[in-house]
Amino acid sequence: MPELSSPDLGPDRLHESVLAWYDDHARDLPWRRPGTTAWAVLVSEVMLQQTPVERVLPVFAAWLDRWPEPAALAADAPGEAVRMWGRLGYPRRALRLHAAATGCVQEHGGRVPDDVTALRALPGVGEYTAAAVASFAFAQRHVVLDTNVRRVHARVVGGVAFEPPGGTTAAERRAAAKLLPERPEAAARWAVAVMELGALVCTARTPDCARCPLSRECRWHRAGRPAWTGPPRRGQRYDGTDRQARGRLLAVLRDAVGAVPGATLDAVWPDAVQRARALDGLVTDGLVEPLPENEYRLPGS
Hints:
disordered N terminus, 3 strands
């Protein structure tokens, strides 16, 4: 990614434009409101991974109503976290949240730690989530790079279209660090503001450059919005996949009061080989617990 060498790409100008835009256009989301706990921020960050805000909002509210602090979730069975997760998708995230809550209780007196290294040490908390919680819950200065932020940086500073190449690169981290305001509070606000800009304006498929506060500074826009020239991004098929089979099986177990007979699961998915493979995967991932007499249940239920 190019350096910030020209006057029109100076960090101060970018900060002023983006933060002013954020003040006027930020969505009123519950995890951003004053007084939000670090636990609520952690829950929101895990739920928002690969999931739209609209789908997260009702589950987030129900989750915090039932488990307003880590100790409440840690005291419940992990299967209840899977049940409450509902249809958000990627249900292993529910188990990760349960494991993180248990870690908060065992290692931090029931509190979400405010140190990014301690956050990284919690089960299921990776680099992005630790930096996001430290920034948004504790107003610290960290590089927070989700797909939205990476896309804004690639276009504005790099002058290129963006297709996620996989994990965040060292070059992206270095470039993002150079854009961070020095004051921790400003850096934390900058992190969420750029994320919001990517989510609402500098979107993947239909960027609205006319409404973007950085259109004059954006190298990609000034170059005529050149198309992505790298390898094409493959769409993810869902119908008929093992993932769909897993979802169907898990939905039956989630809706059941107790254990579910194997025969009931047999009726959920017609392909016996694929069904067995999906069920084995759920057991391996800790999302389903096999019982004697060919019965299954959510873990610890």
